[in-house]
Write a structure and sequence with these properties.
The complex is a heterodimer of chains A (about 290) and B (about 230). Helices cover about 75% and strands about 5% of the residues of chain A. With about 290 residues, chain A is mainly alpha-helical. Helices cover about 40% and strands about 25% of the residues of chain B. Chain B has helices spanning about 40-45, 70-75, 95-100, 105-120, 120-125, 135-150, 165-180, 195-200, 220-225, 225-230; strands at about 1-10, 15-25, 30-35, 55-60, 65, 80, 155-160, 185-190, 205-210, 210-215. In chain B, helix 3 (about 95-100) runs parallel beside helix 6 (about 135-150). The chains are: A mainly alpha (about 290), B alpha/beta (about 230). At the A-B interface, helix 6 and helix 7 of A face helix 2, strand 6, helix 3 and helix 6 of B.
């Protein structure tokens, strides 16, 4: 019993991080049908920005988080402008190969400039441990921080997407680019904003991982990047609630599998679940294949 | 209002529009009719900036708009209601109307205009929170037109508004087009339903394989023997 509660706590933290990354995948897929494989590396860059700001400038947690989100949104827009925009009318496979190249480029440019070694993320958050059940369940304040920040960001995203003009334009472009253009929407600008928002969320995830696991390295993005992609597909790619659901689902599954002695197999279990779900519900758990009237 | 001078448009190597000349005066309803693939939608897409002409001129109120982007042309006062309605299926009726006003920033008068649209199309008001994809075909067409009007256009381009609709709904839509015109919007109507379009319009152009074959007063064309044989009978 205590172990299950402990794993639930860990799973929610891991799930928050997956969900934040998965949101960027799903938003970009929704708008230009691209699986942006460089997204995990934007998250890595976010972690490094957080690392640099806390270590060398001594900034606190919240300022670093915000700065990292801003830096990542700029990076996301630059990547889109340089790498993806020129391919707007090319085949999807060229876009996908480009995304993989951008991913490798970001990883190895970091290795080249700062070296491949793992660095320690400073302890910028005081970690107070609250224990339950005579110390067998530990709730770290970091867990609470991660969850609260994730929820705040998700509420903010929900607000932007549903209540603001740019958010409505994003949804319109995702549904029908040409029709959106007929309304006077500048589609390129909207795509750029989508990358900015998705990348900002990845940047936040990077800093949260830094404070949670205390380490950063240039290749840290590929694992969680792939997992978040799985999470987005599990929930239904292109759907914002799907990414959130998929992220938490995957985080919980992984920690529970690890808890029962299967930590070696946790990735295998994650991907097995993906295969099963895609066999039964190809559109993802929250995806629907609605036929629309024409 | 709008003038096309010797307009040539290509799709790759295909010469889709050949020296099109067309003129729409303020306050008119002009219809462009022709068979499938004759170049009707291509003409509209070129006017609204989605396709760029190879040569020729598009003049909106005397201003050359050849090189302007689609969003800039919307800002100049032209709305395009695309073929197949193309409403945003997973957005509510309300949100679709708001998207129509995308180029405007005057929140207060946007709200008033939405009210006006609900007066013009009472059925949309009943369904304002519903997703547009759940509306019937006729309601979607009404929404598409209302959405187009939300940019407060001087000229509205309507691409096949009767497509796939029951005759009774088509009548309703055409009545609405007449009303919109009376309220001061100039209309360019593209139709395959030549009979109805000619009855509604002031003037008409008949396009065939990318060329204007005939033009004239809509009532005259309706009586024209050749037009009757080619477009109205059989």
């Amino acid at each position: 019993m205590e172990q299950i509660i402990q794993q639930l706590i860990n799973g929610v933290s891991l799930g928050s991080i997956y969900a934040l990354i998965a949101l960027g995948y799903t938003m970009v897929y929704g708008i230009i049908n691209l699986i942006n494989f460089a997204h995990g590396d934007i998250y890595m860059m976010g972690a490094f920005v957080g690392y640099a700001l806390t270590t060398f400038l001594g900034l606190g947690f919240i300022p670093s988080l915000i700065a990292s989100m801003v830096a990542c949104s700029i990076l996301g827009m630059v990547v889109e402008k340089i790498a993806y925009k020129p391919l707007r009318n090319s085949s999807r496979i060229s876009l996908l190969i480009t995304a993989i190249s951008v991913s490798l480029f970001l990883q190895y440019i970091m290795v080249y400039f700062i070296g491949p070694e793992t660095r320690t993320f400073p302890n910028v958050l005081e970690s107070n441990r609250i224990t339950f059940f005579d110390g067998s369940v530990i709730l770290d304040t970091k867990n609470i921080y991660i969850l609260v920040i994730t929820i705040i960001l998700m509420i903010a995203l929900q607000y932007v997407v549903h209540r603001t003009k740019i958010g409505k334009a994003m949804r319109a472009v995702a549904l029908d680019k040409e029709a959106a253009e007929f309304m006077g929407v500048n589609v390129n600008k909207v795509i750029s904003y989508t990358f900015a928002i998705g990348s900002a969320l990845a940047g936040a995830a990077g800093v949260l991982v830094g404070i949670y696991y205390n380490t950063v390295d240039p290749l840290m993005g590929s694992g969680p990047g792939l997992k978040a992609f799985v999470a987005a597909v599990l929930g239904g790619i292109g759907l914002i609630p799907g990414a959130v659901f998929g992220g938490f689902f995957l985080g919980l599954v992984e920690t529970i599998v690890s808890a029962y002695g299967g930590s070696v197999y946790k990735d295998a279990v994650a991907f097995a679940i993906l295969i099963l779900i895609l066999l039964v519900k190809p559109a993802g758990l929250l995806g629907k294949n609605i036929k629309e009237k024409v | 209002m709008l003038e096309l001078k010797n307009l040539n448009v290509y799709y790759g190597a295909i010469h889709a529009l050949k020296s099109i000349n067309l003129k729409i005066n303020d306050g008119e309803i002009v219809t462009l009719i022709g068979a499938n693939g004759a170049g009707k939608s291509t003409t509209l897409k070129t006017i609204s900036g989605m396709l760029k002409p190879k040569s020729g001129e598009i003049l909106l109120e005397g201003k050359n708009i050849n090189q302007l982007s689609a969003p800039d042309i919307v800002k100049l006062g032209m709305a395009h209601v695309p073929e197949g309605r193309r409403v945003f299926a997973k957005m509510s009726v309300m949100e679709n109307l708001e998207m129509g006003a995308y180029t405007r920033n005057d929140k207060g008068s946007i709200k008033e205009d939405i009210k006006k649209m609900f007066n013009l199309f009472p059925r949309l008001e009943e369904r304002k929170e519903q997703m547009a994809g759940t509306l019937s075909g006729g309601e979607q067409q009404m929404l598409a037109i209302a959405r187009g009007l939300m940019s407060r256009p001087k000229l509205i381009l309507l691409d096949e508004p009767s497509m796939g609709l029951a005759p009774i709904i088509v009548n309703e839509i055409f009545e609405i087009i007449k009303d919109i015109n009376k309220l001061g919007t100039t209309v360019l109507l593209v139709e395959q339903n030549a009979n109805m379009a000619l009855k509604l319009a002031d003037r008409a152009y008949i396009i065939r394989t990318g060329e204007i074959e005939l033009e004239g007063n809509a009532r005259d064309l309706l009586k024209d023997e050749n037009v009757r044989r080619a477009y109205l009978e059989g």
